[in-house]
Amino acid sequence: MKKFIAAFLCVILLLSAGACSEKNNAPMLKLESERNCVVNYLGNDYNCTLSFLSDGMESVRLNSPETLSGLTFRCSNGKYTVSLGSLICRSDTVLIPDNSFPVAVYTLMNDLKKNKDSIMLYPDENGYSYSSNSKVPYTVKTDNNGSITKIMLGNI
Predict the structure, then answer these.
(1) Chunked mean pLDDT (size 10), the chain, 156 residues
(2) What's the rounded Cα separation, in Å, for the pair 156 and 153?
(3) Rounded-to-integer distance, Cα 5 and Cα 7, Å
(4) How far apart, in whole angstroms, are the C-alpha atoms of residue 99 and residue 66?
(5) Which three-class secondary structure string do you get for 82-148?
(6) Whole-structure pTM value
(7) What is the domain partition of the chain in residue ranges?
(8) 32 in Cβ contact with 49 (< 8 Å)
């Protein structure tokens, strides 16, 4: 009986060692300098261009709905700009509420940049995804290359 238990434990040990060494084929999350994607915020879809321009600089441009097309929110090292066409407003403080769409997207973008190397993407129906339980919970969907295609923000 002792030989059987010893053999059984050896088999389990070998199988578990093989499972641990299995390669993860998921891509790394890509934060391109500029990426068009859909952001679903509190049940509404916004077609946006997210720009991870450089350290401390992010930009969100709304492409649709048409009534908001071209509205751009930019943050650069603590300086904020809201623009639409030739209308430009600059400030050292956020002029919009903390729970607003652009602030929520900035928070998400900063979280992604800060944690990019530790984010693990998991397979889902059309590519990969990552979910965070941060202050404003979100899920990022990517294509098979790790490029962001959709973000579900604040309504998970």
Answers:
(1) 50 49 70 89 91 80 90 85 90 75 84 87 90 84 92 77
(2) 7
(3) 5
(4) 23
(5) EEECCEEEEECCCCCCCCCHHHHHHHHHHHHHHHHHHCCCEEECCEEEEEECCCCCEEEEECCCCEE
(6) 0.74
(7) 34-153
(8) no
